[in-house]
Fold:
Amino acid sequence: MDLVKVALRYSARIQEMYVAGYEINVEELAGGLTKYILVKEPETKKGKPDKALNVLIEGIKNKYNGNVSIEQLIEELNNNNFTVRRNIGTFC
Structure:
């Protein structure tokens, strides 16, 4: 099924499913097509997680008393599986 026919922002809906705990396999097909396969539904749906920035700030406050070195910041980012990106429409 062509997901664009169901929802223009289907990628956002798939992300919502990941967050809720659905297990989805993704297969990259020829011609730039992607196949999404629902593997398992969650027994209980998960709520939306806390914002990454808030989690990072709380971790730094609690673990480092509010002050971190560059190495500690990188470690915290890695330990929480966070990435840093620019906001859409911003340039350097």
Summary: DSSP finds four helices and two strands in the chain. The chain has a mean pLDDT of 88.
